[in-house]
Amino acid sequence: MKRIVVALGGNAIEAGDNSAAAQEKQVKKTMKVVAKMIENGDQVAIVHGNGPQVGNLLLQQYKGSSKDNLAMPLDTVVSMTQGSIGYWMQKALDDQFKHTNYPHQAVALITQIIVNANDPTFKNPTKPIGPFYTFNEMQR
């Protein structure tokens, strides 16, 4: 038995198609491999990124925002994407476990991180969220 941490990046989940169906399909493909590790007796923790998903949902929030229907703040959008990705992972693992008669269930957890607002690295962020734009797209 091994202890394994599987890290799945947000870009790997999106894989060029940001529709929910395509992302869930990508997660399902990955979780089939992870399920085999678990079924073989390995202890597996899965962590994931969500940069593209956060950015896309944030854009949707701002485009749909009005005086009577305000956009959700960034921390809430982060948790919303954590929840949806965790749901897809848990569902895919549980579906695979049922298919192979593995007698356990997956669990998804939402995390919170405390950071120091005065950390100097916040002055020069290096990890973008959301889509990338060409120069012409930026001009529009």
Secondary structure layout plus pairing:
Blueprint: E1 3-8, H1 10-14, H2 20-39, E2 43-48, H3 51-63, H4 74-99, H5 135-139
Helix pairs in contact: 2-4, 3-4
Would you mind describing this structure in some detail?
This protein has one domain (3-129): Acetylglutamate kinase-like (Carbamate kinase, 3-Layer(aba) Sandwich). The protein contains five helices and two strands. The protein is globular, with a radius of gyration of 18 Å. The longest helix has 26 residues, at 74-99. It has 140 residues and is mainly alpha-helical. The chain has a two-stranded parallel ribbon with strand order 1-2.
Short description:
Belongs to the carbamate kinase family. With 140 residues, this protein is mainly alpha-helical. It has helices at 10-14, 20-39, 51-63, 74-99, 135-139, and strands at residues 3-8, 43-48.
Low-confidence stretches: none
The CATH architecture name reads: 3-Layer(aba) Sandwich
Tell me the name of the CATH homologous superfamily: Acetylglutamate kinase-like
Strand order of the largest sheet: 1-2
Family: Belongs to the carbamate kinase family.
Protein name: carbamate kinase
InterPro entries: AceGlu_kinase-like_sf (IPR036393), Asp/Glu/Uridylate_kinase (IPR001048), Carb_kinase (IPR003964)
Pfam family, one: AA_kinase
